[in-house]
Amino acid sequence: MVQFLRHPFHGTVPDAAPQFDRRAAYAAIVLFGIVSLFGDVIYEGARSVTGPYLSLLGGTALVVGVVAGMGEFLGYALRLVSGFVADTTRRYWALTFLGYGMLAAVPLLAIAGSWEIAALLFVAERMGKGIRAPAKDAILSNVTARVGRGWGFGIHECLDQIGAIIGPLIISAAFFFRGDFRVGFALLLIPFALMMAALAVTRRRVPAPPDLEAAVAAPRQAPPMEALVPYGVFTALTMAGFVAFPLIAYHWAAAGVVHEARIPLLYAVAMGVDAVAALAAGRAYDRIGLSVLAAAPVLGMAIPFFAFGSSFGPALAGAVLWGAVMGIQETILRAAVADYTHLSTRGRAYGIFNTVYGAAWFAGSAVLGWAYGVSLSFILVFVVAMQGLALLAFLYAKRRMEGAAMAG
Fold first, then answer.
1. One domain, residues 327 and 308
2. Which of 113, 140, 185, 202 has the smallest C-beta neighbourhood within 10 Å, fewest atoms?
C-alpha cells in the first residue's frame, strides 16, 4: 500500500521489457539532459543580455519590457495548446523537435540589424519553449518510469542547470574579449548543432515513449483531472510567493550588499545548489513520495529574510536557499504530475501545470516588485502569507490526490 501511494498508477514493475532496461533508461535520461544542457546554454545565454542587446540596437526600456513580457506570455499560453495537440495527435517528438528547432532564433541574433528583428527573434525563442515543454516533459515522464521519476527528473534538472551556468559565461566572455554580443550569439550556433544532434540520437533510442512506459509498468486507472485542482492551487500559491532572482540581485546592487561583479557568482552558486538539490529531492521523492514537496514552501518562507539582508553572509545564505527551493520545484513538481495523471492526458496536464506555474510566478513577481518600492516588510509579509497558504494547500492536495489514487 505504501509503495502504491508513492507511485499510484504504475503497478508493479515487471522483469520483462528487456528492450529498455534500467541501463537504457539512464542512457536516455542523460541524453535528454544533454539536450537540455545545450538548450540552456543557448537560451540562458540570450536571456542574460536581452535588455542590453535591444538597447544597443536602439530599443527603449519600454521595448525591453514589452518584448520580455510578450515572450513570456506567448511561451506560457502556447503550452496549453501544445499540451492538447500532443495528447490529441500523439506527435510528441514532432513538437519537441519543432520547439528546440526554434532555438535557431538565438544564433540569428548575430545578424539582426535592428531592434525590431531582434525582438521578433527573442519572442520566437520563447514561443519555441512553449511549444516543446509539455511534449518534452511527457516524453521524459515515460522514460523515467523505469528508474523512478523523482531521480530521473533530478538527473535531467542537474544537467539542465549546468547549461544555465555555461550560457551566460559564453556571452560574457565574448563581450569581454571582443566587445561585441554578436560574437557570442554566433558562437551559440555550435551548441545548437550539438543539441539537435543529441536530440536526434535520443529520438532513435526512444521512438515511441508512451509504449515504453506501458511496457515498464502496468498502468492503473488514474483519477480525473479535477482531483489535481488542489495541486494546481498549491503550485500557484508557492510560485506566487517565490521571490524571483532578478529582484534579489537588484536589491544586492541597489543597497550595496553585493558588488555587481560578484552577483553572477552568487547566481552560479544558486544554480549549483539547484543541481544538487534536484538530485537529492528526486531520490527522496521516489522513496517517501509527495511529502518531500512540503520543504518547498517551508524553505521558501525563509528566503527573503536572508536574501534581502544588509551583508554578504545572509545574501550568500539566501542564494543557497533560493537554489535549493528551485531544485525541489523543478524536479518534484513535474515528477508528481506524471505520477498522478494517465498517459492519455499527460501532455495536457503538463501544459496546464506549466501555465499555472509561470502565470503565478509572474503575478507574484509583479506584486513583490511593487512591494520592494514601498517597504521590505511588505515583501516579508507577502512571502510568508503565500508560502503559509501554500503549505496548507499542499496538505489538502496530498490528501485528495492519495485518496483519489486509492479510489482509482
1. yes
2. 113
* Distance separating alpha carbons of residues 48 and 26, to the nearest angstrom: 31
Q: Once rounded to an integer, what is the mean pLDDT over residues 112-139? A: 93
Distance between CA atoms of residues 6 and 9, nearest Å: 9
Q: Does residue 147 sit in the same domain as residue 66? A: yes
Range of the domain at 214: 13-218
Q: Is residue 339 part of a domain?
A: yes
Asked if 271 and 261 sit in the same domain, the reply is yes
Q: Say which amino acid occupies 87.
A: D
Tell me which residue of 267, 241, 236, 263 sits closest to 252, measured CA to CA. Answer: 263
Q: Does residue 41 form part of some domain?
A: yes
> What does the pLDDT look like over 177-232, one tens digit per residue?
888 889 999 999 999 999 999 999 999 988 777 766 655 554 455 556 676 889 99
pLDDT of residue 137 exceeding 70: yes
Domain count, the chain: 2
What CATH number corresponds to the domain at position 23? 1.20.1250.20
276 contact partners, CB below 8 Å, separation of at least 6? 158, 327
105 neighbors 121 (Cβ within 8 angstroms):
yes
359-393, pLDDT tens digit by residue? 888 888 888 888 888 899 999 999 999 999 999 99
pLDDT at residue 8 in the model: 47
Question: Which DSSP letter does residue 224 get?
Answer: P
In this prediction, residue 300 carries a pLDDT of 97
Q: How far is CA 390 from CA 81, 209, 232, 237, 398, in A?
A: 27, 33, 10, 5, 12
Is residue 204 domain-shared with residue 223, that is, in the same domain? no
Q: CB within 8 A of 325, min separation 6: which ones?
A: 242, 277, 296, 299, 300, 303
Q: What's at 392, amino acid-wise?
A: L
Residue 326 near residue 387, CB atoms below 8 Å: no
